[in-house]
Every structure is written in C-alpha cells, then in structure tokens.
Design brief:
This protein is α/β, with parallel strands linked by helices and about 500 residues long. It folds into three domains: about 110 residues, Response regulator (Rossmann fold), CATH 3.40.50.2300; about 170 residues, no CATH class; about 180 residues, no CATH class. It is about 60% helix and about 10% strand. It has a six-stranded mixed sheet with strand order 3-2-1-4-5-6. Strands 7-8 form a two-stranded antiparallel ribbon. It has a two-stranded antiparallel sheet with strand order 9-10. Helix 14 runs antiparallel to helix 15. It is globular and about 85 Å long.
C-alpha cells in the first residue's frame, strides 16, 4: 500500500486559491502514486473534512494555507506548513520537499502524575454549539453592560437629602447629552447580542454561510413589532432560529451545485435561501408562540423574586448546585445557559433596573468552587492526599482560578460520591450567598479573580464577591477533608518513622 498524504488548503477570501491548491495537490499526489485526501477551508466553511482515522493513517500532513489553521489535531504526525501559492505552482516539488522537511508536530503522552486532566474525546452536541455562541456574545455583554451602567448611574437624580427623585438625562448640559447617548449605545449592544449569539451558534453547526441568516432570523424573532406581539422570543427564540438555520445551511451545502455557480453558493445562494426560509418560519410558525411563552415565563420569574424574599437565595443555591454536580456536563451547561438566557432576555425586556441577575450570577459564583475546593483541601489536609493527587490539585488550581470547573474531574472520577456531594454543597453555598448579597455579574471570570477581571456590581466593592466565592471553596474543602482517610503513602511513611528516644 502506498504512502498516504492528507492536506488542508485555505486562502484569505476562501473562493479561488483554496480550491486551486487542493486540486493541484490531489492531482500531483496521484501522479506520484500516493493516496491523498484534501480538506478545503473556503468561504463556505470546511469541506471534505479530515476524520481522525484519515489523520491517524496519514504518513504526511501538508497545510497549504494563507490563513491560520490550528494544527493541534495533527499532533504526533509529520507536518509541513506552507502557503497556497507553492501548492498551486508546483505541487509535485512541494510534496517531495514536504516528505524531506516535515517535522513531527507536538509530543504525545503529556500527563500530570498518573492522572490525565480532562477528556481526549471531542464531543460536539447541542450544548457545544450553544456555548460557542455564548463565548462570542460575552464581550458584547460586558462592553454594553459597563456603558449602560455608567450612564444609568448618572440618570438617577437626587434631592438634597440623597433621595432619588427623578430618573432621566438632562440633555441641556454637555454631560447629560453625553450620558444619554452612552445609554443608547448600551441599549444597542444588548439589542445586538442575541443576533450575535445566534449567528455564532449557527456558525458552529454549518460554518460561515449560516451566520447572516441566523443573525437576521434571531433579530426578527426578538422584534415585537415584526411579530405583532408585546415581547420578543428572546434567548430561546434565538436558539431555535440558530439550530434551524444551522442544519438548513448544512443541508444546502450538500447539494451538488453546478460548477459554474460554486463561487457564489456560499456568499449569495445559501445566505439568500436560508434567510428567506427562516423569515417565513419566524413570521408564520415559531415567532408568536415562543414570544408569548417567554414573556409569561420571565414575568413569572420576576414576580417570584419580588414577592418572596427567599426566592432569589433558593434559585441561586439551586443554580450553584447544578454547576457543581457534573463539572462541565449537561446539568452544568444547562445551568449556565439558563442563567445567561434569563439575564440577557430580562435585560432586553425590562432594562438594567429590571433585569434578573440571580441565576447568571449564581452560576458564575459557583463555577470555580469544585477545582479550588479540592486544591484547598490538599493544602489543609496534606496527609490525606497522595503525591499524585497534590500534583493534580495544583493543575486544578490553575484551571479553577480562571473559572474552568473541569479541573476537579480527576478527583470526581476517583471518588464520585464524596466529591460530588462536597462540590454540590460548596457550589450551592457560593450561589446562594451571591444571590443573598445582591451581587450582579455582568461578565468576566467566574472565580475570585472575577471581582477584578470583568464587571460585578456588589454591596462592598471587590470584597463581597470574593467572600461569597471563598465561602463556597472553604465549604467544599472542609467536606472533602473531613470525609477522607489518611493517604496510603503518608500512612506507610508514618509507620516507618523512628519512635525517638
């Protein structure tokens, strides 16, 4: 069997050089007697995608690209990186050079002690796409939230006794005029974040051609004037639109379009068809029922918070507990999505003074509890942890301090019942305290560092958030420590020590 080559081609525009380089490499490789498969990353997105088996069986990987291509999936394989032009001009010489000069990318087997952190399986599912959209939306949430908050503070006009007597902007002054415009800018940001979210959820499903139709569809499903309703479909409407558009575009990409129209398929035909279809679906099928349902749900949630003093604390504790339950799993992600949805939709509907921050703030307060809790436990109860566990705990600290809850997974896998109980209780404490103290998380890192990196409104600047999160971390650490026995290596060392004179 001949040697096998896999390649990736791409260019800046994604229309011409991408496909010319791919065709040139394929023809040259076949003439030279090699088996070959080429993945193209054009304007339509990735096509003829290399599978893990393709990469595993390859003797050589060539990246012929004018844009950045992440090489991480080629770890352990001979890799040669070049531009698209050399592949187009003389692909046979390029292949010969690649076999001579390719170097193995990365090294396999990176481990911490005997424990491998995280999973090595790539899982793409519903929540993966949703979280991808959220990651693009967060910067806009932070920017718009900060601007809106600054302008809103200026709008509260007080009397001589410090009582708020009026809300509004005095645009006859320069400062009042500026703050009025900044308030408008913040509102625009919150109005755009839902279409932005939908666009990148659809992009996660079907690449670039899905972005424009999803953004337009999400804007429409959230526009009461277009729907003829009192409220828009909000976050849930955007999710529905994004998935309809994503899989519609995915289906359109599989159509064997005539070669003569291929250059305009990703930039004209697919966006036009997908936008037309999603517009009709939103207008006549999903727009009205989703908007009515979402309006009722958020109105009920807001009334619950207003009429029952303990409701925010209970909701915060439940959301926090969900974060600590499966550390990045479906329940964890469901809580994150729910918190984000409630925050963004109520912010859009009721404005900054009426937005519901409770679920979103609680989930972010809880997100670092599990990894930082197990790290603190190894510090407080050193004799109850083995050397390998202490090394893994250091890695968990590094992940937890930047808000990555998955850092505690190795400990949960080793002792699920004790660890899940400790994580859930500590995370519920953090979430409940954040809700009880009235913290409002706009965006940033969900760890103690979040008080400095991001923006959080809190009764005592910087301190309230840190105290809430640290209370959860300490709770988890104590529960873990008190429920463990002495580690075997420490027990052996203790038995071997001299008793002394």
């Amino acid at each position: 069997m001949g040697r096998r080559i896999v390649a990736v081609t791409a260019c800046a525009a994604g229309i011409a050089h991408t496909y010319m380089a791919a065709e040139s490499i394929e023809q040259a490789a076949k003439r030279m007697g090699y088996e070959v498969k080429v993945e193209t990353n054009g304007a339509i997105g990735a096509e003829n995608v290399l599978t893990p088996q393709d990469i595993e069986d390859a003797d050589l990987v060539i990246i012929a690209s004018d844009i950045n291509i992440d090489p991480i999936r080629f770890t352990g394989k001979p890799l040669f990186v070049t531009k698209s032009i050399p592949a187009i001009e003389d692909a046979e010489s390029l292949i010969e050079r690649a076999f001579d000069e390719a170097e193995v990318f990365g090294k396999k087997g990176t481990k911490i002690g005997r424990i491998q952190i995280g999973s090595d399986k790539e899982k793409v599912n519903f929540l993966t796409h949703v979280m991808s959209g959220i990651s693009y939306m967060v910067p806009m949430v932070i920017a718009a939230g900060l601007i809106l908050t600054i302008a809103n503070l200026y709008a509260f006009q007080r009397d001589d006794l410090g009582r708020i007597v009026k809300w509004g902007f005095d645009n006859t002054t320069q400062m009042g005029y500026l703050m009025e415009k900044l308030f408008y800018v913040g509102q625009v940001g919150f109005k755009l974040m839902i279409p932005l979210f939908a666009g990148f959820v659809a992009n996660s499903i079907a690449d670039k051609p899905a972005i424009a139709p999803a953004m337009i569809g999400a804007y429409l499903v959230n526009d009461p004037e277009f729907l003829g309703t009192e409220a828009g479909g909000g976050f849930i409407g955007a999710i529905v639109v994004a998935f309809i558009v994503g899989y519609l575009v995915k289906a359109l990409k599989r159509i064997p379009w005539p070669k003569i129209v291929l250059p305009i398929v990703p930039i004209m035909i697919i966006p036009f068809l997908a936008t037309s279809v999603i517009t009709l679906i939103v207008l006549f099928i999903i727009g009205n029922p989703i908007s009515v349902g979402m309006d009722a749900m958020y109105q009920g949630l807001t009334d619950l918070n207003k009429n029952f003093a303990g409701a925010p604390i209970l909701i915060g504790a439940i959301c926090g507990a969900m974060i600590g339950f499966d550390l990045g799993g479906p329940i964890n992600k469901t809580a994150l999505v729910f918190g984000t949805a409630v925050f963004t939709d109520t912010m859009t509907k009721y404005g900054i003074t009426g937005a519901n921050f409770v679920p979103g703030t609680a989930t972010q307060a809880a997100i670092s509890i599990a990894p930082l809790g197990v790290w603190l436990a190894t510090m407080l109860f050193r004799k109850k942890f083995s050397k390998d566990e202490k090394i893994a705990a250091s890695a968990a600290f590094g992940m937890g301090i930047v808000g990555v809850t998955e850092g505690a997974i190795p400990f949960v896998a080793a002792n699920p019942i004790r660890m899940i109980f400790s994580n859930v209780v500590g995370s519920a404490v953090a979430g409940g305290l954040a809700a009880a103290t009235g913290c409002k998380f706009y965006g940033g890192i969900g760890s103690p560092l979040g008080t400095f990196i991001g923006y959080i409104e809190q009764p005592i600047p910087f301190l309230t958030w840190i105290l809430c999160v640290c209370a959860g971390i300490l709770t988890t650490a104590l529960l873990i420590g008190f429920s463990r026995n002495q580690a075997p290596d420490h027990a052996v060392a203790t038995q071997g020590e001299p008793t002394g004179a």
